[in-house]
User: What shape does this take?
Amino acid sequence: MAVALRMSVLYAPTLKEVPAEAELPSHRILLRAGMIRKAAAGVYSYLPLGWRSLHKIEQIVREEMDAIGSQEMLMPAMQPSELWEESGRWDLYGPELMRFQDRHGREFCLGPTHEELVTSLVRHELRTYRALPLSVYQIQVKFRDEVRPRFGLLRGREFIMKDAYSFHATQESLQEHYDAMYRAYSRICERLGLEYRPVEAESGQIGGKVTTEFMALAESGEAALVYCDCGYAANVDAASTVVPRHPRTTEPRESHKVHTPDVRTIAELAGFLDIPEHDTVKTMAGKLPDGTLVYFCVPGDRELNPIKADWAAPGVVLLEEEDFAALKIPRGSLGPVDPPAGTLVIADRSLEHEVAWGVGANENDYHIVDALPGRDFEVARWADLVGAQPGDGCPVCGGVLKGARGIEVSQVFQLGTRYSESMGATFSDEDGAERPFLMGCYGVGVSRSLAAVIEQRFDEAGVAWPVTVAPLEVAVLPLMTEGEVFDAGERIWSDLAAAGIEVVLDDRDERAGIKFNDADLIGWPFQVIVGKRGLAEGVVEVKDRATGERENVPVGEVVAYVTSAVAAAKAALAPTTTHP
Assistant: This one.
């Protein structure tokens, strides 16, 4: 017999009013439907219904991980600082790393991820290529001291994540497992009923050069992405950018300095010169660890992407307002012509063939018009410096990129030797030589996925869960709490459970309207409504929450009807991506 619950004893305290703190639909619904409760900013308790849905997501993840040979384990959430110091991330990770000391003064952190710990584990256990490849995973609470926790489960300080790690002797082996993980992650998204896109991404503090994010498309998503009909898709921070250019002239002109009093912004400069903003060039300044000043030149109508700036000049830190005065450079009039001695000039590659730059003159209240690279100044490096946006050219087929917003629900990385080298994790190869492991890591945001499903499947009444994620599959709603109506509802509830259906009986002494509202708010995929009038005619009403469709079904056929409907709903979420 499947799970059979009664609403009268179920701990699911629904709310009529929308909590003031809830900004997004998923946050509002999870609170109102009695699935989560806030303990502190970014920290939540999962009530029984929310916990059941989380367990279903976890089970889907486990099945897909087990299918590709990854083995489940559990590592401690508390990690010693020495491991993070070995990898270099103790200081690099920043204030988001939750740090503390034990009673002996030894420093620890609460893990946001486990690259260091798993690497320290296997370096003492895997000593030969014969033990490779190895893939392990865990599902665990993680921690990040977010400066501004918000959006419920989408950006919290404590969250549930599946993280997996793989160790390989060859790049071919790493690529093979990375591809298997990619397909498994696609299947997970499909089984959760998510509309998603795998996109090229930036690895951030995790490290590595090859990574893909799986984005659940949603207007509420914090991440911006671009995509093309040819299949190319990328996070705007990682997308290769083909910036459309419409130069005023293709012929070089004599450059000249122009007095521009009180002009500090690109908009003010374009207005003063009576030219479009895209005909100006914006210069941003940064400094390398060795003190070298870097000027980044980008089209005036675009913004410098800090991540791409770091790719072009590794270790660069963009200047803050107080830095300009200390360096005696004019913040509002920076430009590549006669910058301070030793300045490294890096320009966006979209400007490479421009012959008439409007730039700052490195002198307050002055700009230079029609400056020409190679004649008036030198560019040390041409690089992709700006974030992609809709309307840019596709780097694959040349088509026009479209834009969307998404919620990152999972990501896969090829780490290479990022951690094995710094932490001395090696194995003996076929020739007896010691070599560092090649590593991959792979994360699924379990609690974040729960919120992402709601962001795609909510309406004014509540959530319409996919049957694979719903706390239970069916609710039986007898509209009376005694007599033949209630007895019929209880029999249907019992028979559905005996048929293997997860089912809840709303046996509360409440008005029909309250039962209907709570059923839609909580989002039971199928609702069996048992009323006096219907029973007199020998039927009950079955409602499909996702479509709103209602069907009168003979009482004697309702168990078979609902069982078939649940099976069909599950079949519709069967993954299209094949196993390796």
Q: What stands out?
A: Residues 308 and 385 are 5 Å apart (CA to CA).
